[in-house]
C-alpha cells in the first residue's frame, strides 16, 4: 500500500520472492544493492503503467537475514487516483479514486481473505 519501498537487502541470505504467472520466483542476491519496489499507490497514480509486484519474504531455517526497508506513502488523508495526464479516450482510468487511509485499512482485511485490495479498485 505504498508509493514505493526502498530495500537494502542482505548480501548473503536470500528470501525475497516475486509472483509471476502463478509461480514464486527467487529474487537473486546482488551484494550492496538498494532495491526499489513500486507500490500499489504508484500503480494507481500511473494508471497501471507501473505495476506493483506481488512479493513475499520467506525465512531461512539455517541462516539469519537482515534487511532494511523504508516505505514511502503519501498523506493518509489524501485521495489518490490515476493522473489526469495519463487518461484519455484511448486509455481510460483503470482505477477508482480512493483515500489512502481507506486503502491501507483495506489491506489488512483483504490480506486475511487472500485477496488484493488494488483489484477491488479496478474499473
Q: What is the CATH C-level name?
A: Mainly Beta
Characterize the main sheet: 3 strands, antiparallel
Q: Would you report the number of β strands?
A: 8
So, the CATH homologous superfamily? B-lactam Antibiotic, Isopenicillin N Synthase, Chain
Element order: H for helix, E for strand = EEEEHEEEEHH
Query: Numbering strands along the chain, what is their spatial order in the largest sheet?
Result: 4-1-6
Radius of gyration: 16 Å
CATH architecture name: Sandwich
- Derived structural class: alpha+beta
Provide the helix percentage.
10-25%
Whole-number count of domains: 1
Strand content: 25-35%
Q: Determine the mean pLDDT.
A: 92
User: Remind me, CATH topology?
Assistant: Jelly Rolls
Detail the poorly predicted runs: none
Distance between the termini: 18 Å
Q: What is the overall number of helices?
A: 3
What is the quaternary state of this protein? single chain
Shape: elongated
GO molecular function: metal ion binding
Keywords: Iron, Metal-binding
Pfam family, one: 2OG-FeII_Oxy
Protein name: Fe2OG dioxygenase domain-containing protein
Amino acid at each position: 500500500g505504498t508509493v514505493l519501498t526502498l530495500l537494502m537487502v542482505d548480501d548473503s541470505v536470500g528470501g525475497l520472492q516475486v509472483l509471476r504467472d502463478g509461480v514464486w520466483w527467487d529474487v537473486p542476491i546482488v551484494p550492496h544493492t538498494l532495491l526499489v519496489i513500486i507500490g500499489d499507490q504508484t500503480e494507481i497514480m500511473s494508471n497501471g503503467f507501473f505495476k506493483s509486484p506481488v512479493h513475499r519474504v520467506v525465512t531461512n531455517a539455517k541462516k539469519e537475514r537482515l534487511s532494511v526497508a523504508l516505505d514511502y506513502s503519501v498523506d493518509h488523508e489524501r485521495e489518490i487516483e490515476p493522473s489526469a495526464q495519463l487518461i484519455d479516450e484511448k486509455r481510460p482510468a483503470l482505477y477508482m479514486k480512493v483515500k489512502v487511509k481507506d486503502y491501507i485499512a483495506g489491506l489488512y482485511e483483504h490480506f486475511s481473505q487472500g485477496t488484493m485490495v488494488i483489484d477491488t479498485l479496478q474499473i
